[in-house]
């Protein structure tokens, strides 16, 4: 975490990354390559999805992300693929919530919320939902994103909160429109800045048949050869909820949208954002 500019005593630049690493599927060199990108990009806070517990150490080795929480650390679950929050500075879990797509569903989904230390500026709340992926489960995703906003409202700090992860929903879906302040859900409304909408370039598709690793999975799950969606996000709390601080999105880009040594990092592209935090 770096000062925004000389003389700005209360400013801090925070680099945030979200990435679905697709556990250890496919080429066995992928984990090491993702580790290399984490070293190169040097993010301060990272939301990872589909991480096996025995894979985490290799992912973060030498990256400076010395503080990690895997969902297996805080949940009793048979799932081996889980969400991870990794950070350079200390973090503490404040809430974990379990969700189901329906009352009789045997598949669980989770929301992990942690307070992350931001040096002299205090703490910020980082909320990572892991949502149902099926195209016909928008209602379940909406309920979970409502819950994510409720978690933020309950635990948020002075610094603008972050909600990030693989949300499995497109920008025009009700859940994403809700987070963006474009519509209400269940009589509630909120507003977060979508980092890509603020500072990204182009459509920002993160799950696309143009990715050779994703194409077979898309063909199997969706069955449409040209399918592409933006479903991975970094949202930042607005001044309405945080009147004493600001988080300005100064950059947003994709990670893993080109191969390294002819190897694609994952079936998802990651999203990287640089945020300038300051006290009002």
Please state the average pLDDT score.
92
SS-based class = alpha+beta
| Rg for CA atoms | 18 Å
Order of helices and strands: EHEHEHEEEEHEHEHEHEEEE
Model description:
There is one protein chain. The protein is built from seven helices and 14 strands. The protein is α+β, with helices and mostly antiparallel strands. A six-stranded mixed β-sheet has the order 3-4-2-1-14-13. The radius of gyration is 18 Å and the shape is globular. Mean pLDDT is 92; it is low at 3-9.
Please specify the SSE layout and strand pairing.
Blueprint: E1 11-20, H1 30-41, E2 45-51, H2 56-60, E3 67-70, H3 71-74, E4 82-87, E5 91-100, E6 108-117, E7 123-130, H4 138-155, E8 162-166, H5 174-179, E9 192-194, H6 195-199, E10 207-208, H7 215-221, E11 228-229, E12 232-237, E13 245-255, E14 270-279
Parallel strand pairs: 1-2, 7-8
Antiparallel strand pairs: 1-14, 2-4, 3-4, 5-6, 6-7, 8-12, 9-12, 10-11, 13-14
Keywords for this entry:
six-stranded mixed β-sheet, 20% helix, alpha+beta, 7 helices, disordered N terminus, 280 residues
